[in-house]
User: What shape does this take?
Amino acid sequence: MAPSAYDVDRIRWHFPALREGAAHFDGPGGSQVPDTVATAVVETLTSAISNRGTVTPAERRADRIVVEARAAMGDLLAVDPGGIVFGRSATELTFHLARTLSSGWGPDDEVVVSRLDHDANIRPWVLAAETVGATVRWADFDPATGELPPEAVGAVVTDRTRLVAVTAASNLIGTRPDLPAIAEIAHAVGALLWVDGVHATAHVLTDVPATGADFWVCSPYKFLGPHLGVLAAAPELLETLHPAKLLPSSDAVPERFELGTLPYELLAGTTAAVDFLADLALTDPSLSRRARLVTSFAALEEHEDTLLAALEERLRAIPGLTAYSNARRRTPTLLVTVEGHDPQDLRAALAERGVNAPAGNFYAWECSHHLGLGATGGLRMGLAPYTNADDIDRLATGLEEICGARR
Ligand SMILES: Cc1ncc(COP(=O)(O)O)c(C=O)c1O
Assistant: This one.
């Protein structure tokens, strides 16, 4: 077998949930979970564990789990594990840091958000700006192409901009903006770049320093792990920030940003998810985890691109179908509407056929409205590491039947 071979049958075997029989296109909302992740969670909960410490084996276990999870996320994002912050969700981490960062802003300051983004990377900044009297400036994407060109961000960045918040990939239409170019624009005026990597991290190999992002948030439940959120930033940058915290809790970085006791079982599951991703392609086990992630993500991208091309070809033949995922660089996440069919009806009819493809705006509220789809949104189909050709056929056949392209 070639060193980077992507064996989807082998991968699927690790997902007990797939044995229930549905074809899952709901990964952008939350992926299914491999057995190794579930086992890591269970083993943590059934082992002796207490708060982090060095005295008892239970304390040492908790400590080891935290250290290992930071290391795993460091490998996944190509960052210093000392700058990995765990939280309840990406939304919660963004609100938390928005409050912290904006405490230093005033009425002369500006923050830039984009209409391509999930509301989790808009509303925390809008509300934080409101609190301190700062101005919000909006970068618009082109609804026809789905592109957010760096110039659209540049047009609203001024020498008053303190922070630019933008997505690494739209969870609604998949668009992946040119982050290094946006970083250059932000940094040229001394602004920080906050990137929502929640959707992107599941599909493309992330190298946070290469993107130019100062902050990167993501959520392991989108990339085969458990439900929690992760923030990555350089430890030196985190040292300059002082979030609200309890008096007796650690003031060290990154702990000072982590409110309350960490969910150790979910951290163990996160490490297992990163390990699973590293082994998606059969790579040389003696290589570093980062090196295996590089190879595995290359194979994953190829796998998803091939399936996406097959799906798009079938969809193009469906009468009345409009596809909104048209950007040059994008994830395998498609948003469509079909003339004469309510997206919720399409979703329900697909569900009857054992195909899970949800419909809505998926909290990409501004994005959906900017596309002219209002709160209704469309039908979203997302590929995941376990998607296979049979899933694609079931989805396409289902849509053909429902939309009258096939009798
Ligand atoms: C692009 C994007 N950003 C943010 C979020 C919110 O993530 P969380 O549930 O971890 O707060 C989501 C969830 O769907 C998302 O897709």
About this structure: The chain has a mean pLDDT of 97.
